[in-house]
Amino acid sequence: MLASRRKRVIGTPVSETQVTKKSEAATGTLARYDERVTAEEHEAPECDAAISLAFSILGKRWSGMIVDALSNGPLSFVTLRRTVTRISDAVLSDRLSELAGAGLVLREVDPGPPVSVTYALTRQGRELIPVLQQLGKWASENLDVAARD
Length: 149
Known about the structure:
mainly alpha, Arc Repressor Mutant, subunit A, 2 domains
């Protein structure tokens, strides 16, 4: 029943007066329309493409913490797993592959014996460190830790 009610509300034509009042409230100015305005005709603001790209990689859970963990130098998979607490092996492996694919992390294999694999930040990854530090500072000053739980 709620879905059908939504359809009627969404499908209801918007009068010029309603659009004008909403526009006035949003912009603080008098908006005047000579013809009916539909939702499709309004231009919605778009997110910056570079910010969207950055968050498509760094916005995934654990990615920022992995980059932060590698900021002090190369680490093995096992050390990364211990450093980034509560991450599963599968997710750590996926995130490392994604970060390597994005050019932020380098996977280095030492044939041994024994064979060892370490992960290190690339130049691009190291350039993220000051940004992550600023983000951490902002979070400490502006976010309530209790709200996260």
